[in-house]
Amino acid sequence: MKLTILGGGGFRVPLVYGALLGDHAEGRVTHVTLYDLDGGRLSAIARVLAEQGAGVPDAPAVTATTDLDEALRGAGFVFSAVRVGGLEGRAADERIALAEGVLGQETVGAGGIAYGLRTVPVAVHIARRVAALAPDAWVINFTNPAGLVTEAMSRVLGDRVIGICDSPVGLGRRVARTLGADPGEAWIDYVGLNHLGWLRGLRVGGRDELPRLLADEQALGSFEEGRLFGPEWLRSLGAIPNEYLHYYYFNRETVQAYRQAERTRGAYLLGQQAGFYEEMGKPGTPPLATWHRTLADREATYMAANREAAGVGERDEDDLESGGYEKVALALMRAIARNERATLILNVRNRTTLSVLDADAVVEVPCFVDAAGVHPVSVAPLPYHAVGLVTAVKAVEREVLAAAESGSRTAAVKAFALHPLVDSVSVARRLVDGYTSEHEGLAYLRS
Predict the structure, then answer these.
(1) Can you tell me whether residue 207 is helix, strand or coil?
(2) Which of 6, 42, 325, 24 is nearest to 134 (CA)?
(3) DSSP character for 82?
(4) What's this model's pTM, rounded to 2 decimal places?
């Protein structure tokens, strides 16, 4: 079976290939095609993968191409992890938003809207090429903003595009371990949108153990989200929010921390990855060791500004393990290709899961997965405070989709102005002006 990775020169591709190397069952991925616009990045990542696979029996063959159609032909699965505008674009998104005093994070607030506006047209083009050249393929989307991009692609591909994110997985794992439970045996009641969700229960043996955690001050403050939000606020909510909700609940403090930081996250990653790819271009550089060293630094500095705003310092070693999006992707592929049934938290079309949203809205909820595809699980209604955020942000996403489809500057301004973290229509207009003047990918909004 052929897996095509779009954004194949991306830094995290070795995580996916590493997960594939442990799969030797019948029906496994036997060929990986890397697609990227940047041939130099493709070459660097191909070298890392070659060292990863050296000596591994039946390691999937790897080819690389800068031709999208060539990459898609014959694919059984397409993993989409593209970054339109590169890290230069992300750094600009942050800078322009912060100059207006609002958040510029890549998936949340003004930065997320700007990223979505330039990514959706590319994602829709990819979806149309998949439909034309690999109509039986399943698309696994990790391109951010993941929920918005998955919804845009689903208008072409229907239920054959599925969005994944490692944040809910990591959250569930940390809560389970704090409670002394096996994460693999726990049922996680999680619901929301991508980067806007809440863990509302964790059942072990049919019993919800979350109330026990909420009642234990010491345990509640012992893991990443507990330190980030504080035990008092978590007890007020009666739930554990996804880490990205820190941008909403502590927005003023986070914006201040971002403005005071020496560099934004995007600017930091831009410099770090430029150094990595430059080093990879030198003869004699050990590919895998260089990649591992860079990855360790990347994980240790994740959400540093938020931790600074919360006054919690460096990440604990127990929190450094990611949610494992590559493991989620592999489990998803196995469930569909080999009917190895799995329960995963995924970004899928709502159908009737959340009554406050329409059937086509992409939500992030627990799903059963088998050879027939993905089946979202019915969940209890959201409390009103969550309904407000979810419906407001979904309204913003719909305006982004409308702007991307029509080229309407008016729709783009409306998307910014309606977001809970943008506090003025005048600011929204200036943001559109700033982003369209900065990004060629937003030229369609300049008229």
Answers:
(1) strand
(2) 6
(3) -
(4) 0.94
